[in-house]
Amino acid sequence: MVEAAKSGATPIEGDGKRILLLLGSPKPGGFCHALAEAYAQGARSRGHVVHSIKLGEMNFDPVLRGGYEQSQNLEPDVLEAQRQIHWAQHLVFIYPIWWGGLPALLQGFFDRVLQPGFAFRYRAAESREFEPLLGGRSADLLVSHDQTHWHYRLRQGAPAHRQMSRCILAPCGIGLRHLEEFSPVRGSSEEQRQGWLRRAEQLGTLV
């Protein structure tokens, strides 16, 4: 479930960051996996330590069945994901956009992992205001989809981007460093995809 990316580079003493890649596609392969590998390669070349979580390989119930008012046992993979997020200084979410939004498995991951007391807490018993508990961390979003940029952003309003930045990362105290779209994937040429992979690798060097 959680992997430490193998490094052929010599870590730079004192400079390397702890990076956690979270692959939000449930598919066992595909372009998102290639983006994750390219990003990790770029990050390792700068001496960063890279771990990864592939949501499709996790064993957990993605349905928050009773809301946060009722207790739901946290599976070992959920607890390990929380440990890895605590360990990380920089988070990288790599996922496709389906039906304009996040894949259901990724949404379920957030519902189950970003628990009150771990990612945030309410400021008072009846308060609707969050106190973030994961501050000091940064994040990159690498997102693939089949729409043109203008269509997704202007015609559809980019709902997944707004949800991630404003409704998930910000309330937990995680600062968004970079959001990169790779689209449209459907119908793209091999040359385009290779260019996108080079861009993902470059982003890994800029942490």
UniProtKB/TrEMBL annotation:
<dbReference type="InterPro" id="IPR029039">
    <property type="entry name" value="Flavoprotein-like_sf"/>
</dbReference>
<dbReference type="InterPro" id="IPR003680">
    <property type="entry name" value="Flavodoxin_fold"/>
</dbReference>
<comment type="similarity">
    <text>Belongs to the NAD(P)H dehydrogenase (quinone) family.</text>
</comment>
<feature type="domain" description="Flavodoxin-like fold">
    <location>
        <begin position="17"/>
        <end position="175"/>
    </location>
</feature>
<keyword id="KW-0560">Oxidoreductase</keyword>
<dbReference type="InterPro" id="IPR051545">
    <property type="entry name" value="NAD(P)H_dehydrogenase_qn"/>
</dbReference>
<dbReference type="Pfam" id="PF02525">
    <property type="entry name" value="Flavodoxin_2"/>
</dbReference>
<protein>
    <submittedName>
        <fullName>NAD(P)H-dependent oxidoreductase</fullName>
    </submittedName>
</protein>
